[in-house]
Fold this sequence. Notes:
By secondary structure, this protein is of the alpha+beta class.
Amino acid sequence: MLAGKSKGFRTGRFGLSLVDRYIAAEIFLPFLFIVGLVSSLGVAGGTIFDIVRQITEYGLLISVAIKYILLKMPQFVAYAFPVSVLLATLMGYSRLSGQSELIALRSVGLSLYRIVVPAILFSLFVAGLSFAFNEYIVPSANYKAATMLEQALGKEQPALKADNIFYPEYKQVPAENGKTRKVLKRLFYAEQLDGETMKGVTVVDRSQDNLNIFILAQSASWNIPENRWKLFNGTSYQSNLDGSSVTSAGFERLSYQFPRAPLDIAKRDRDMSEMNIFQSIQNLENLRLANDEKKIRQTLVRIQQRIAFPFVCVVFCLLGAAIGTRPQHTNRATSFGIAVAIVFIYYVMNFVSIAMGSVGAFPPFIAGWSANLFGFAVGSWLLFQSAR
């Protein structure tokens, strides 16, 4: 294989040497095969069994079932990327080690760190591909799959129908101990949203100093040109803080400045798997306005997790290369067993850290990245040990 150091490392197409392309080929072809295999197993285990039950118990059409499975495929392909990188790297370097090709490479003065560079570059490429997949394909495909299944089973909730829409806003005021405390600023409540119209609307406005406003209206709708709410057929009450002075006025139509957020939160809530990072950040703004601390914390953790997930490819590549390059003969069954153990340990750690972050025990960054950082540290240490 080696024609000597000068020829083997002469830069060729895409700036890669002959040895780089040789190692990349050892990883790339198994990677493609494993992506297909793991994706198929994921779809079978995570989707097909459930969709068959929907067909037999609820009479779901076969055509809808096929479309649903196809729409769920991108999610399982994205899940397959890290595992495939791990297994392909582990198998590739194990074969090179088992056939003494790594010894040959090192005998011409090549360090082990240089030998794993092609795999690291490949994992960075897969990480970028995984990020693009998770941002631009998976969320929209998941959302279409969920809405299509709901419609087919007659479980769909009309996009603009909801009951008991409750939207508070808060403000910080000085406290006696010199700090600040949170108090209600404004409250919007509607008994029902029917189409574009809110019914049974109550508004409490405490945003002005020394004046409280209380509004009851039969209905309200969002006026797009004016970017304000229009309230219909109601009464507005105004009072000072101690309630000693109260005035009221009936109205048929009242223009009221309030965020559109109550209408937004009445729409169908998307699961995190149905939102990309940008949509998650937009949702986070609505949650902050509603002051929902629990969901804010969970969303922050999920955003960090979404950013960290593609880099699992790099971590798994480092672990696979570090173990595969160790001077031992590892067959494919052993490689598969090692890969399963690594994946299991990683996902248990990730699950625990996400759970801890969701309850506030870990900061969102630590919750999203701790498994990656631990895996990177272990992989670096193993590679260092192999290179000694």
